[in-house]
């Protein structure tokens, strides 16, 4: 009889544990589904905490910790629709999953595209250089509206789109005062401020939190991370490390990204050394002579532009006659991507692994398969 009682108690314990949808984890957190747990590893701009009442607290701050540009952080409490769960003081309540939103940048849009969530997007700033056929179709049939550019938004169109939240980029030109007056919750998406390619890509999890696609975002990023680190490991075995510089002259100045920019990290991970060694995270305009002093003998030159025709070495020299002074020009080592021919800004935020493989194939072709076909970058012919 005693054995039977013990057996019955064991069975009841197993059923109770297996049937629970909420499982406690360290720190007093509560999860409905462990596969949907979002814990950023590379992104520095957001954190997530799970409360026992099912509320998810999402804190957003500048990944670069620049208090002059962003003196405050943002706090959001994500609550399932229909729930009466209490929200901690200081947090803005957001009922999820969000079903209607507006996005302001291609980086943000790339997250929705990757998560197959175009139905949720009801507004974008414009369609210039937009390649995605589905988004163009939705703009044409009116299911997505064009709200205008930053600083000149059409408030009436925004209200007509009836978004529950709007994803913004608070460090850019701005013009959000009019939107704030609508009372719509603004969600800062700071992926573009991340200093590593994987950190930027991990913001797909941030969007997943708001639209109920945490599992999909975790799975997607897991694949990106694996492929990126595999390519990075190949580059680590390279016997040489070529040097590379980036940009070109425009309006009398050369825009050069800093040595701590995510592009510089991408070069390093691909087995090359970026010639700019400062601690800047963004970019700055410098004179030609200053860039030449750093990059005259660099092995490679990376250029990303929107040339209206077929770009060539002749076109590059025509834009600035002194360009032929660079070793990379003379040796035909210009790495090129034309944004008029590729959906660079629409897709690369969630494809850093592809960018890395493209660069690896150029810097160290012996480390990739012979039939590899680049998607974005290739040597200019």
Compute the number of helices.
Answer: 14
Predict the CATH topology of the largest domain: Rossmann fold
What count of structural domains? 2
- Low-confidence stretches are 1-31
Question: Which features would summarize this protein structure in a list?
Answer:
381 residues, alpha/beta, Rossmann fold, 2 domains, five-stranded mixed beta sheet, 33% helix, 19% strand, disordered N terminus
Written account of the structure:
This protein has helices spanning 2-19, 106-114, 133-141, 155-161, 177-180, 197-201, 203-211, 214-236, 262-269, 288-295, 313-319, 327-330, 344-347, 352-363; strands spanning 23-25, 29-31, 46-50, 56-60, 74-80, 92-96, 101-102, 121-124, 145-146, 165-168, 185-188, 243-246, 249-250, 253-257, 273-274, 283-286, 300-305, 334-338, 378-379. With 381 residues, the chain is an alpha/beta fold. Strand 10, helix 5 and strand 11 (185-188) form a beta-alpha-beta unit. The longest helix has 23 residues, at 214-236. It is globular. A five-stranded parallel beta sheet has the order 9-8-7-10-11, sandwiched between helices. The protein folds into two domains: 22-224, Nitrogenase molybdenum iron protein domain (Rossmann fold), CATH 3.40.50; 237-379, Rossmann fold (3-Layer(aba) Sandwich), CATH 3.40.50.1980.
């Amino acid at each position: 009889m005693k054995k039977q009682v013990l057996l019955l108690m064991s069975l009841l314990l197993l059923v109770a544990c297996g049937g629970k949808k909420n499982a406690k984890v360290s720190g007093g957190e509560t999860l409905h589904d462990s596969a949907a747990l979002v814990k950023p590893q590379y992104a520095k701009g957001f954190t997530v905490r799970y409360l026992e009442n099912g509320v998810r607290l999402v804190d957003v701050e500048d990944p670069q910790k620049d208090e002059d540009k962003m003196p405050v952080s943002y706090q959001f409490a994500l609550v399932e629709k229909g729930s009466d769960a209490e929200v901690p003081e200081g947090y803005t309540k957001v009922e999820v999953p969000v079903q209607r939103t507006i996005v302001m940048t291609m980086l943000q849009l790339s997250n929705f595209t990757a998560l197959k969530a175009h139905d949720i997007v009801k507004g974008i700033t414009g369609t210039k250089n937009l390649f995605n056929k589905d988004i163009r179709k939705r703009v044409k049939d009116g299911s997505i509206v064009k709200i205008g550019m930053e600083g000149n938004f059409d408030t009436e169109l925004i209200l007509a789109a009836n978004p529950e939240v709007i994803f913004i980029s608070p460090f850019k030109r701005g013009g959000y005062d009019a939107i704030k007056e609508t009372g719509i919750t603004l969600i800062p998406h700071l992926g573009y401020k991340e200093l590593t390619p994987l950190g930027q890509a991990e913001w797909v999890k941030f969007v997943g939190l708001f639209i109920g696609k945490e599992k999909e975002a975790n799975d997607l990023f897991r694949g990106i991370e694996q492929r990126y680190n595999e390519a990075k490991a190949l580059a680590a075995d390279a016997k040489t490390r070529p040097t590379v510089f980036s940009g070109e002259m425009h309006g009398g100045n050369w825009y050069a990204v800093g040595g701590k920019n995510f592009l510089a990290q991408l070069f390093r991970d691909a087995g090359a050394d970026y010639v700019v060694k400062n601690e800047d995270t963004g970019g700055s305009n410098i004179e030609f002579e200053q860039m030449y002093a750093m990059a005259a003998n660099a092995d490679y030159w990376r250029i990303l532009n929107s040339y209206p025709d077929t770009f060539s070495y002749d076109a590059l020299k025509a834009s600035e006659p002194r360009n032929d002074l660079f070793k990379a020009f003379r040796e035909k080592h210009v790495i090129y991507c034309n944004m008029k021919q590729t959906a660079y800004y629409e897709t690369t935020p969630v494809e850093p692994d592809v960018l890395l493989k493209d660069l690896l194939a150029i810097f160290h072709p012996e480390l990739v398969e012979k039939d590899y076909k680049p998607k974005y970058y290739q040597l200019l012919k």
